[in-house]
């Protein structure tokens, strides 16, 4: 795609040569709210491998990147039927150009509309922290509206001995993963219909299956790929953090400010009873 000019703003596909600049912008652009989060990644393009199709678009002015956005295209199961969805992610603005958000965003929206068209997909979606007001306003400007608010739970690392009754499989094949997801298609939305994402996870050896009697959990190890840090906390949470570091640190690992944190994402979690779930 040739550079498109909108005033003095150009929109183009990002290339691997832009990686370092995009990572720098990401690290300087925290996700705001009660907890400010900043990403620590080595490859800005890493998330694209989980989509059937995808690309990163950037807006630049005088050879300096102003902002960027990622686009992932995939087939999803919605209401029991296959739908083509477009997922927008990695929306970042260079802190030096905060006052130009409206301008570069308009340019990218126009280019996306030209590229994708209204008939090439069934819907578009994105996710954002509920208290990240700035990002929500940007998405609203792009025509998005809030359809649901989901709760995500973070479980800290406990300094305890391993539970002997829990077993885990480190090497999983694609067939095993698909067998776990197949029964869910009738009851859950936004399940992947394609296998590209799972193929990438299996190839990288990042999936773990934990099992105990009466419960199981499929986990994606994102450490080193989607690490993050906390750069700022609300006054109440900051006070709790300082208190916890002094009282709970012998039992639970309390992260420090700006510390690089690794995480695992629980993709599937099923149990027969609460006791089994707690063990897993």
UniProtKB/TrEMBL annotation:
The Swiss-Prot or TrEMBL record annotates one GO molecular function as: acyltransferase activity, transferring groups other than amino-acyl groups
Gene3D superfamilies noted in UniProt: 3.40.630.30
Q: Report the residue ranges that make up the N-acetyltransferase domain in this protein.
A: 9-162
The highest taxon in the source lineage is: Bacteria
InterPro entries reported in the protein's UniProt record: Acyl_CoA_acyltransferase (IPR016181), GNAT_dom (IPR000182)
Record-given protein name: GNAT family N-acetyltransferase
State the organism named in the record.
Mesotoga infera
Q: What is the lineage of its organism?
A: Bacteria, Thermotogati, Thermotogota, Thermotogae, Kosmotogales
